[in-house]
Amino acid sequence: MRLHQFHPSGNCYKVRLLLHHLDLPVELVDVDYLGGETRTPAYRKINPIGRVPTLELDDGTFLPESPAILWYFAEGTPYLPADRLQRARVLQWMSFEQYDHEPYIAVARNWVSYAGIPRGKEGELRERQEKGRKTLAVMDEHLRTSDFFAATYSIADIALYAYTHVAREGEFDLSLYPHVLAWLERVRSQPRHIGITERP
Ligand SMILES: N[C@@H](CCC(=O)N[C@@H](CS)C(=O)NCC(=O)O)C(=O)O
């Protein structure tokens, strides 16, 4: 099994974190996304949208999109609850992550700390940061009365942790969200947790 990935990407880290929890070995294939490798015809053959991560199964099947990869591995494990409503809760927060979190918090981080702010997009960066702050406030309110996003630690927490714990790299002040900070610690204290820079 191989994971085509860019190591600093939170989307790729989500998958590495779950695989490490599950003690499933994976070969990491580094893709130079900042250098344009995801846009090459060869890469688009394995992922038509041209993004990382892409999972390559042993039979040569490719599965793109971090939520799909997380779901694939979490089935039948404690990281995806069996209860019907709780599964829907996991999907609810994973959808939130893709629509209300990643486009603001991950993109701000990428522009500020990795790729550079595209020319003329300084105003757009401020707008994305404003929307990201609203997202963090929604998370903080949920975590005021809940330890995790569903009833127990799940792939919803893994998906949301990936870019939240490095949100400072996108100029977000996490000290404004005390319940988020406490949840980050709860996630870090889970068995077999690994950090974003570690290579399992
Ligand atoms: N919805 C996708 C988003 C993946 C994504 O945006 N990956 C970025 C790196 S973090 C990428 O490959 N970007 C390449 C590009 O846009 O050209 C997922 O969750 O896997």
UniProtKB/TrEMBL annotation:
GST N-terminal domain segment(s)? 1-81
- Alphabetical list of InterPro entries matching this protein: Glutathione-S-Trfase_C-like, Glutathione-S-Trfase_C_sf, Glutathione_S-Trfase, Glutathione_S-Trfase_N, GST_C, Thioredoxin-like_sf
Listed CDD domains? GST_N_4
Domain GST C-terminal, by residue range, is 83-200
Write the protein's name: Glutathione S-transferase family protein
In its UniProt entry, the species of origin is given as: Pendulispora brunnea
